[in-house]
Amino acid sequence: MSKKIIIISGGEIEDEHALSVLNEDDACYVIGVDRGVEFLYRHNIMPNYIVGDFDSLNPEIADYYRNETSVPVRGFNPVKDASDTEIAIRLAVTLGCKQMVILGATGGRIDHLWANVQCLAIPFKSKIDAVILDRQNKIRLIGGYTVLKKDEMYGQYFSVFPLGQDIFRFNITGAKYPLKNHTLTAYDSLCVSNQVDGDEAVIDFAGGIVVLMETKDI
Q1: pTM for this one?
Q2: Is 217 left (phi over 0), alpha (psi -120 to 50) or beta?
Q3: Average pLDDT over residues 80-99
Q4: 3-class DSSP state for residue 49?
């Protein structure tokens, strides 16, 4: 299978941006998630898998994939212990991907967004490069020393937030707002909207997991 899997979830999708991401790699696997399948159907893109409880997918589209294609469709009871996106992420990990891009994971309900961010820990713990993307944001998890090159940034800003615990001996160098040996607590907004000052910035810390967001104004 492809080393790269793109998950199309059921949040807000900006068609032009999503199509550009899909066109970057014609060999990638695609997993459609519940209402995200409508985007694939609309653009005649055949996914490799479809998962979800289908509580928000047009029933006619669900029937089309079940009855008129060979795409594996994995349906789940809406009363379950994991979100549709988490199910898709775990499937992608099981399939052995090395890179995961999740589209349609932002916008709309904030509880869904936050659940999707936390679910990035699943591929992270399996050493899979996973990101949530929309046209304004790139979200990933990091576990230590990370270099941000200005000319490779997704946008001009970066923000960092601890995931689930305080982060000790936290350092940012080469940025507009540097930090040295700081304790980054799990409940403040200190590290919102920083910028790379020169060619690159470095984030480093002693342990734990940090949410790194690269963002831009549109």
Answers
A1: 0.94
A2: beta
A3: 93
A4: strand
